[in-house]
Amino acid sequence: MQPISGLLSALIFLPVLESIIIMLLPRPGTEQKEGQLGPGGFDFARDLLVNSALLFTTINLLLAIVLFGAYHPNPLALPVRGLGPVMQFRERLNWIPLGGGHWVEYHLGVDGISILLILLTNLVILVSAVYASQAKRGAREMVALLLLLEGGLIGAYSALDLVLFYLFYEATLIPTYLIVGQYGGPERGKAAIKFFLYTFLGSVLMLVAIAAIYHYTGTFDILALSNPNSAAFAALHRLSPHLLMLLFGAFALAFAIKTPLFPFHTWLPDAYVEAPAVGSVALVLLKTGVYGFVRICLLIFSAQINQLAPFFIVLGIIGIVYGAIVASIQNDAKRLVAYSSVSHMGFVVVGIFSLTRIGLMGALLANLSHGLTTPLLFLGLGMLEERCGTRLFRDLGGLRKVMPTLATLLLIGTFSSMAVPFFSGFVGEFPVLLGSWISSQTATVGNFWPTAVAGTGMIFSAVYILWWYQRLMLGPLPETYRKLPDLGRYEWPVLVPLAALIFWLGIGTHYWVRPMSLPVEQTIPASSEAVRDDLPVATLLNQQWIEETYQAHREHGTIRLAPTGIPTHFPPGVHPPSSMMPPGGRIPAGLSPNPQRRSVPQGLPFSNSRFSRPMVSPPKTPRATTPAVPSGGNAK
Amino acid sequence: MVPTSYYLVLSALLFIIGTAGVLVRRNPIQIFMCVELMLNAANIAFVALGRHFGQINGQMYAIFSLAVAAAEVSVGLGIIVAIFRLRETINIDEVNLLKQ
Amino acid sequence: MTTQAGLLQKWYNLFIFPEYWHGIHLPSLVPYLGLVGILAFALGMLPFLIWIERVVVALMQDRIGPNRVGPRGLMQPAADVIKLFFKEDIRPRDVDRFLYFLAPFLSMTIAISAGAVLPWGSIAFRDAAGRVFLVPITAGNINVALLYALAMSSLSVYGLVLAGWSSNNKYSLLGGLRASAQVISYELAMGVALLCVVLLAGSLNLGQIVEAQNQLPFGWHLPALFKGSLFSWFWLQSLVVPVVIYTIAMVAETNRPPFDLPEAESELVAGYHTEYSAMKFATFFAAEYINMLLISGLNATIFWGGWLPPFNCVPFTLIPGFVWFGIKIMMGIYLYVWLRASLPRLRYDALMQLGWKRMLPIGLIWLFLLGGYSLLRTPKTGTALPAPTPSIVPTPPTPRHSIQFMPISARQGGGK
Amino acid sequence: MDSYIPVFVMIVIGALIAFVMVFGSALLGPKKPGAVKASPYECGMTPVGSARERFPIKFYLVAMIFIVFDVETIFLYPWAVNYRHLPYALKAFNYIEMVIFVAILFAGYLYILGKGALDWGEEEAVAEALKRDPIVLAPRPAIRFGNENSGPVDLEKIPVGPRVPVYGASAQELCQPLEQTTVRLLPTGEER
Amino acid sequence: MTNSQSLHALLPVLIVGITGILVMIAEPCMSWWWQDRRAPSRWLSSSLSLIGIGLAACYAVAQINAYARNIYAFNGALVIDHFSLSVSLVLLTSAALAVLLAMNYLEEHKLNLGEYYALILFSTVGGMLMAMANDLIVLFVALETLSLALYVMAGFLRTSARSEEAALKYFLLGAFAAGFFLYGTALIYGGSAQAAGMGGTTSLSEIAFRLQHGEPTFLLMAGMALVLIGLGFKAALVPFHMWTPDVYEGAPTSASAYMACTAKVAAFAALLRFLWVMAPAHAFWIGAVEIIAVLSMFVGNLLAITQENVKRMLAYSSIAHAGYLTTALAAITSTSAQGAAFSAALFYLLAYTLMTMGAFGVLVYLSRRGHDCQTLTDLRGIVQREPIAAYLLAIFMLSLGGIPPTMGFVGKWLLFVATLQAGLPGLAIALALASLIAAYYYLRVIWAACFQEPLEAAPASSEPLPTWATASICISAVFTLLLGIVPVFVNTLMTAGRSMFR
């Protein structure tokens, strides 16, 4: 299927436009009759808001579905490993000039990993916008901010330029910050600022690292930097390991804070708890940390990842266990769910850093599952709190009797959270455990301990989440709650889609796995020792190889060092890597010294021998006569 | 003929006296006079150097700075008078509504 | 060794060895002649001036005036001075002692030194090459003479302000303030009037300004009689208005009636010199009269042809230049006295209004009318007009280059 | 610099003459100081308060405006001196430039006039301005001579010399009724 | 370059200046002719000012398009190049926004005097001339033209002792700085004669030429240091920043906004040109400039954290922004990074102008009935009363904090890259860390405005909207966001930055 040009931009900027429109709508009234839920009486403004929120988010979701439908799971029908991810729907424009022919580019593109996150975002934003439009206070603003958040998130998931990524990464902060800060609980301001500052600390360091990467390589292109054959990659990896480790650390810190990983998670409980239900959902939706680990850290810093994977796995495991234990002792229902998030994200991190296909796939599925389950729990809790006015376990109980529907839907979330098979949690966490098992066979962490300890997390989760459900829904019902209504007209459509998707992810897993399988293949660093043995195209990327490549570029005199020593030209034998090819095969001016090479097809490396020797042997005769086939970079 | 360096030393001394005065004094009028001293130190340097180089520029610059100094005097005295009418004092130490 | 400093050294020789008289560079001595002359005139006229004022005012008011001390009361000023010298010098309580003494000192010093630039005649010299140099007889034959005069007239207000401030007397303070505000207000009008003259003469040297008036009026072709005559002086060349402005400003600058608000006895006791007694009071008094003399002198110089006779023909040219100059000054003095006798004192707001709202804008506009007139009369071709008065040199050549100087009569063949 | 030397000589002579005149009577005249004789002369009234008093803002205003116009004159002088000697084209250019310069100055002058900075008819102006704009042109504090809030005369400040017959009452006699008031008002250390 | 050609090239400045004069005398003339001063003056003065500013801006744009080479007007005293014209446009922007703000502010404070607009225009003239000055004496005169008007504006609230105090402090320290500047100029005049028989000069291009072909003398370097101090005062860099918080707090808010922008923009334009001229001798000053940059960033940000008064906080933050801009000054020493540094500085100046104008503008918007909205307490919960103002304030605060997608981020990013290109990674990291600190106190403002409950119940806001202030803020906000997302001007500014080297 042909890529639809401008689709990604539309997905990003349509929500922004919609958000402005929403802000221009009249503000709904706040009057409410005694004992009634939802708006009281006829409120045209509120109806208008609800309908437009529903309309807009549906349009967005439809667009995302179009994107999903047009996406080709494997455009080349080949397992292209070692060249970085293959992107589709690419859009590439020069954006901010930096002098010397360098630009910060408006460079978008998606692969399966991004597309599923985009779908998730659109869907969850839809339900939470519908929920938010019912809020007594700030409904209009919350919907508008949610739409802004949607735009920012999609932008972050589709950015292929580091600065653009940073920009969207930061842009998602603002609506979240405003939602949490304005409409949350009593300590919301402090929590919001804490959240913002933590994240901002990380991202500023990331900005420094981005600038440093530009300084050393002359490009911000994520694809170029992820491609081991590219000059940018070679230039970057020629740096001293210490420096590379620092750069990686800057990125990793930013993503670890955002994920959140164990020692950097302290903003999370405050923010989740103080936020309104919609805000908690928004926070849950901030998957940019995980996405950044996958998209940026894994390939650009493959050597560092290999070195530090055990460390991250340990942190992830600590997070799993710690989150679970702390969750077990909470007396606040929402705080419990918040801590359970720490535990779940621990699984995700373990999966990513297992550096195996199965582990990474599991991590991404767990990520999606968390993005469906936790919103369900938070939204349900929000509805509960709206009715009961409290979240403390000691005041609640037996609510199943008055609101059976909510209880049922929450039970689905509960099961998913404790990773019961056929629920989404399971299909995420089980592969993670598998992956950690495989990787621990090769890595230094030690035989089965990581898997075993991580596995206890699943047991703990059963403990706390079942206990949570029991204390809320089972047992005697307090007299005061006897008259409480069940789900209202607008609350059904909020929770039901989430629950349905949980089932779909748990049962129809292959729908979700198929678009991600090739990207996962391409995203595992070629140097990952854990997958070397079981994959035919595994190769060892070592320092010697980098040196040789770099020297080859130098010798052919095609490396341009101005202004900061950036190699942007390629020796005659080395073609511009697929990931650097723009859509339509247009090579940016200055990238290729030899215009004849434009039609040279990209030889895809799928043999061990291709990788085991330096890629500098120039073919004596240019294969200009060979018919052009689409290069790997874009799905023609 | 007096060497140019003497004039420069004189102007440097005046400038230092003016600077020290600005930093030490507490009465805005005195501070202001010290500032004028600084400007005039520059004028002396200009005139002396212009004479040294045999250029008319130096003296021209001195006239420019005189004009500017005059404008400064007008504005400065206006401000000082205004503050005195409001506060009945112009001592810098007592003019401290804005916290430091 | 510079010329003048060398001369100072030579003076010593002059007294001891008369043979040195032979080689003296006479043009260099002219400034000292000018100095002595103006000093003698100012100090000599001072008592006479007081007498004149009393007599004239008395005549105008139809009474007798001073008639006891000396013939027709001529010795009255001398008697006053002797009396004042032997009066007690009271130092009031809480005065700022230094400033209190400085004020009269400053008034007097400035009043006298203002006279340094007034030329009261001219001498022509011829050098060995036969060129004629006309040297004005004045202490300060300097390029910025007019600025100097203006500066001194501005400085004179310091004496009054300091006196008012240091006296620890409210009346004095108000007097000093009034004096300062009045003097600076009228100084602007005065400066603009002077600018008109500078525009016409193209020089700030008073000697050159006088010599610029020594020409045919408006460049018309008239008989030689009219060269440098009454009609070519700047009072007419500047088309009268600046003279009027200057004359009014001149009266105000010296705090004379009808502009004597700083010492208005009906309001302020005696204004800034309320607390002064004995000779310190007399110092202020004398300084005021010397100021009158010198400002009238300036008036005579820039508007009324200085030492020039009113017509360039025999009965007038026989009289020496300094006599004409003295006559012009005395006419100014008479004007002062006349005004005092005739006009009531102005109200302060009327005074300021006259200075700021009438004289200043009129003067400025007039300056540019004159500039435009001058522009219209400039030929459109040619590079530049000749220097205004080539016969006048600001500083005569040094003896190193031309030793043979012969004094010749000022009005015979001098200049072109 | 040569031609300036006689000028300096003149200044020095003037200073000498002034010196003789100022200090002449201090040497020749009698010296009989007295407290009342030394007090400021204010038409015979006992002087009250300090003479260093505030005075109308107008004086400052005139001084400031003067500075501006004086500096403008500084710029006019070189122009006027050279104007006559210039060839026609340059003269015309200089004329126009200076007309522009003075026109700008005149704009300022008009502004000053319009704002009433040169109006000394105080009462009418204030009344009129108050009618127009009560806040901006708030009434200025009255001109004071210091006698409103001043207390009794401080006896310590009056130097009382030897009892010499002076005109009228002696200083002590003058201050006699005030002395008790003074003692009563001051919270002195002896009472404690 | 004949005189008439010079005048023609200088037309934007002349238009603003003549408009200023007209505005100044319009009001007195009206009081003479129509015997009525109050009613039409606001409209007359402000609309005249806006027309003048608009005309000047149009003309400046036309010049940017028309002039392919630098114009050295009046015998090289002024240089009209793309750089100075771009700075002029920034200054005109801030002037226009300030006029809009003032229309409401002055009315609220019963201070509707036409002089205020005239002062705005005069100081804009000074600022534009500072950007164009190619001679230190012209620079000095322009600096004073700018400053004198600003002193008066700071003390414009004549009935407020705080305003007068601010004016006094600003004036005294400003005059002090002017003394330094003039003396430095004198020393440069003497020191620019590198050999016997070579006359002194104050022309910047001449100095640049001499520095490229000879050794810098001691006097020259001493003079440069003094000039740097003088300009540093104007730009509120750290050792010379003491006046800033007091002045910004005390001055009328609309004046604070204007002076925060104009003085800084003009001072940095002058600093850029001056230090570029001095670049061949950068070994003498680069260290000092780096230290000043780091100190300004950190001192400004750290002191801003504790402030309760928003105007004061913005003052400290402006010190920090001056520090960010100083990194560009350090970066112009490297030949490879000069263009990037100039364009980054220009972009940041525009960004700074828009967002500071906006931030102060929101305070003006909220200052009703003569009550100045200044402290965080005043701002509490205004989102309930004035949601638009609160959200716009949030945008400006985020932009000031350098958070995407705003102009502040793009500006900071360009500075960051320029600094790195110049090989000053330390400065770049300091820039990033400082903006991290900065985020905290900007968020506090948002917190107070949007998250906190108001102290008293929100009164029904029946007052009419301050139309012009709203317009000013909205313009600022739209451009802050728009240029943050699509920084289209950057390319123009790059050309402008390069125009310096022609």
Automatic annotation (TrEMBL), chain A:
<feature type="transmembrane region" description="Helical">
    <location>
        <begin position="361"/>
        <end position="384"/>
    </location>
</feature>
<keyword id="KW-0472">Membrane</keyword>
<feature type="transmembrane region" description="Helical">
    <location>
        <begin position="236"/>
        <end position="257"/>
    </location>
</feature>
<dbReference type="GO" id="GO:0012505">
    <property type="term" value="C:endomembrane system"/>
</dbReference>
<feature type="transmembrane region" description="Helical">
    <location>
        <begin position="278"/>
        <end position="302"/>
    </location>
</feature>
<feature type="transmembrane region" description="Helical">
    <location>
        <begin position="48"/>
        <end position="71"/>
    </location>
</feature>
<keyword id="KW-0560">Oxidoreductase</keyword>
<feature type="transmembrane region" description="Helical">
    <location>
        <begin position="336"/>
        <end position="355"/>
    </location>
</feature>
<keyword id="KW-1133">Transmembrane helix</keyword>
<feature type="transmembrane region" description="Helical">
    <location>
        <begin position="308"/>
        <end position="329"/>
    </location>
</feature>
<protein>
    <submittedName>
        <fullName>NADH dehydrogenase subunit M</fullName>
        <ecNumber>1.6.5.3</ecNumber>
    </submittedName>
</protein>
<dbReference type="InterPro" id="IPR001750">
    <property type="entry name" value="ND/Mrp_TM"/>
</dbReference>
Automatic annotation (TrEMBL), chain C:
<keyword id="KW-0472">Membrane</keyword>
<keyword id="KW-0874">Quinone</keyword>
<keyword id="KW-1278">Translocase</keyword>
<comment type="function">
    <text>NDH-1 shuttles electrons from NADH, via FMN and iron-sulfur (Fe-S) centers, to quinones in the respiratory chain. The immediate electron acceptor for the enzyme in this species is believed to be ubiquinone. Couples the redox reaction to proton translocation (for every two electrons transferred, four hydrogen ions are translocated across the cytoplasmic membrane), and thus conserves the redox energy in a proton gradient. This subunit may bind ubiquinone.</text>
</comment>
<feature type="transmembrane region" description="Helical">
    <location>
        <begin position="230"/>
        <end position="252"/>
    </location>
</feature>
<feature type="transmembrane region" description="Helical">
    <location>
        <begin position="145"/>
        <end position="165"/>
    </location>
</feature>
<keyword id="KW-1003">Cell membrane</keyword>
<protein>
    <recommendedName>
        <fullName>NADH-quinone oxidoreductase subunit H</fullName>
        <ecNumber>7.1.1.-</ecNumber>
    </recommendedName>
</protein>
<keyword id="KW-0812">Transmembrane</keyword>
<feature type="transmembrane region" description="Helical">
    <location>
        <begin position="29"/>
        <end position="52"/>
    </location>
</feature>
<keyword id="KW-0830">Ubiquinone</keyword>
<feature type="transmembrane region" description="Helical">
    <location>
        <begin position="289"/>
        <end position="307"/>
    </location>
</feature>
TrEMBL record, chain D:
<dbReference type="InterPro" id="IPR023043">
    <property type="entry name" value="NAD(P)H_OxRDtase_bac/plastid"/>
</dbReference>
<comment type="subunit">
    <text>NDH-1 is composed of 14 different subunits. Subunits NuoA, H, J, K, L, M, N constitute the membrane sector of the complex.</text>
</comment>
<dbReference type="Pfam" id="PF00507">
    <property type="entry name" value="Oxidored_q4"/>
</dbReference>
<comment type="function">
    <text>NDH-1 shuttles electrons from NADH, via FMN and iron-sulfur (Fe-S) centers, to quinones in the respiratory chain. The immediate electron acceptor for the enzyme in this species is believed to be ubiquinone. Couples the redox reaction to proton translocation (for every two electrons transferred, four hydrogen ions are translocated across the cytoplasmic membrane), and thus conserves the redox energy in a proton gradient.</text>
</comment>
<keyword id="KW-0520">NAD</keyword>
<keyword id="KW-1278">Translocase</keyword>
<feature type="transmembrane region" description="Helical">
    <location>
        <begin position="6"/>
        <end position="28"/>
    </location>
</feature>
<dbReference type="InterPro" id="IPR000440">
    <property type="entry name" value="NADH_UbQ/plastoQ_OxRdtase_su3"/>
</dbReference>
<dbReference type="GO" id="GO:0005886">
    <property type="term" value="C:plasma membrane"/>
</dbReference>
<dbReference type="GO" id="GO:0050136">
    <property type="term" value="F:NADH dehydrogenase (quinone) (non-electrogenic) activity"/>
</dbReference>
<dbReference type="GO" id="GO:0030964">
    <property type="term" value="C:NADH dehydrogenase complex"/>
</dbReference>
<dbReference type="GO" id="GO:0048038">
    <property type="term" value="F:quinone binding"/>
</dbReference>
From TrEMBL, chain E:
<keyword id="KW-0560">Oxidoreductase</keyword>
<comment type="similarity">
    <text>Belongs to the complex I subunit 2 family.</text>
</comment>
<feature type="transmembrane region" description="Helical">
    <location>
        <begin position="468"/>
        <end position="490"/>
    </location>
</feature>
<dbReference type="InterPro" id="IPR001750">
    <property type="entry name" value="ND/Mrp_TM"/>
</dbReference>
<keyword id="KW-0874">Quinone</keyword>
<keyword id="KW-0520">NAD</keyword>
<keyword id="KW-0813">Transport</keyword>
<feature type="transmembrane region" description="Helical">
    <location>
        <begin position="282"/>
        <end position="306"/>
    </location>
</feature>
<feature type="domain" description="NADH:quinone oxidoreductase/Mrp antiporter transmembrane">
    <location>
        <begin position="133"/>
        <end position="437"/>
    </location>
</feature>
<feature type="transmembrane region" description="Helical">
    <location>
        <begin position="170"/>
        <end position="189"/>
    </location>
</feature>
<feature type="transmembrane region" description="Helical">
    <location>
        <begin position="137"/>
        <end position="158"/>
    </location>
</feature>
<feature type="transmembrane region" description="Helical">
    <location>
        <begin position="413"/>
        <end position="443"/>
    </location>
</feature>
